[in-house]
Design a protein that fits this description.
By secondary structure, the chain is an alpha+beta fold. It has helices spanning about 5-10, 15-20, 50-55, 65-80, 80-90, 110-115, 135-140, 140-150, 160-170, 215-225, 230-240, 245-255, 260-275, 280-285, 295-305, 310-315, and strands spanning about 30, 35, 95-100, 105, 155-160, 180-190, 195-210. The strands form 2 sheets. It has a 5-stranded antiparallel β-sheet with strand order 4-3-7-6-5. A hairpin with a 5-residue loop joins strand 3 and strand 4. The longest helix has 17 residues, at about 260-275.
């Protein structure tokens, strides 16, 4: 019988059965081209993942598959080059691949949309990232150089010169008024000898602002200094407007005061920390620059409708 027939018979996914075949756990299974053939008398193997899940759940950690089985899964997936092409093409975040010398070789659809590129052929093998004269001014020269040295590197919340990128690479020169920040990850793809063949870059937007310039600057300042105690004087200095006038302006354009926006950001960060089971509630608050026994616990409850402990319990129940 085929993998699809065994899937129906045993009530498990075809991918798992492929792993069983590739790892020799199905006696008598043979491969003919890209097709696995399984004896009708074969018995469904015991699912080791269930046992692993049960054992590791007591350690508040999810199980991982046997490394050998995982390797076979990727080896099996690699056989389907069309699938790899589709995954890269439709990957939801902007992504591009470069040669070790810095030349761009390929970009996915999300990157082309991001940079407003209609004709990517003018980019491939012609645009070299390493010789971009703006890297230092943009603050990413060290990051880029380390990436092309073969390091796996991740930088959070980098301010992206979006307008300049579009002007340099794009075909649609529509203006962008605002500010964009991204988390950028770079990693090498190596050959069997460890030599980098390609350098992959992935871009995920962490925050974006559009609208009146003064409001954008204020939000950027609060989002950057959210761990600190709120200081309206420092905020006013950052936007070059008196604090009384800016408070009115901010509320007029956002519907909330600067301090309320600060509270929203703070609560969001605390919620993220509370989802980390390795931290106590007090530690989660401390990492966000506030005392769990202070007034911000009341702010948290007012904003979420739950105490911090109740919120953590709810997230644990939902598996988040």
């Amino acid at each position: 019988m085929t993998i699809q027939e065994a899937s129906v018979k045993w009530g498990v996914g075809t991918r798992i059965i492929t792993v069983y075949c590739a790892t020799g756990r199905l006696e008598g299974a043979v491969k003919r081209g890209n097709l696995w053939l399984i004896p009708e008398t074969a018995e469904k193997p015991f699912d080791r993942r269930k046992k692993a899940t049960q054992e590791k759940s007591t350690q508040n950690n999810r199980s991982m598959q046997n490394p050998l089985e995982t390797a076979y899964m990727f080896q099996s997936l690699y056989e389907y080059k069309e699938l790899f092409t589709t995954l890269f093409k439709h990957f939801p975040y902007p992504m591009h691949i470069c040669a070790p010398d810095g030349t761009m070789l390929l970009a996915n659809e999300a990157f082309l949309r991001f940079a407003r590129i209609k004709n990517p052929e003018k980019l491939y093998k012609k645009h070299n990232i390493l010789i971009n004269p703006n890297l230092k001014r943009w603050g990413i020269q060290e990051f880029t150089e380390r990436a092309f040295r073969g390091e796996v590197i991740h930088e959070r919340d980098i301010k992206v010169p979006y307008t300049e990128i579009v002007e340099r690479l794009g075909d649609d020169k529509a203006s962008f008024t605002g500010a964009l920040y991204q988390d950028i990850t770079a990693f090498p793809i190596r050959d069997s000898g460890g030599k980098p063949l390609y350098i992959v870059f992935i871009f995920i937007t962490s925050r974006e602002y559009q609208g009146k310039e003064e409001i954008i600057r204020g939000k950027e300042y609060i989002d950057t200094h959210w761990r600190e105690a709120f200081d309206m004087d420092k905020l006013a200095e950052a936007v070059y407007i008196s604090k009384y006038r800016y408070a009115r302006l901010f509320k007029q354009h956002t519907g909330m005061t600067p301090y309320t926006y600060y509270q929203e950001v703070k609560v969001k960060k605390i919620k993220e920390k509370l989802c980390d089971g390795n931290l106590t509630v007090a530690q989660a608050f401390a990492l966000c620059g506030v005392d769990y026994n202070g007034s911000f616990s009341k702010v948290f409850k007012r904003k979420t409708g739950m105490t911090p402990s109740e919120y953590r319990a709810r997230m644990t129940e939902n598996g988040q």
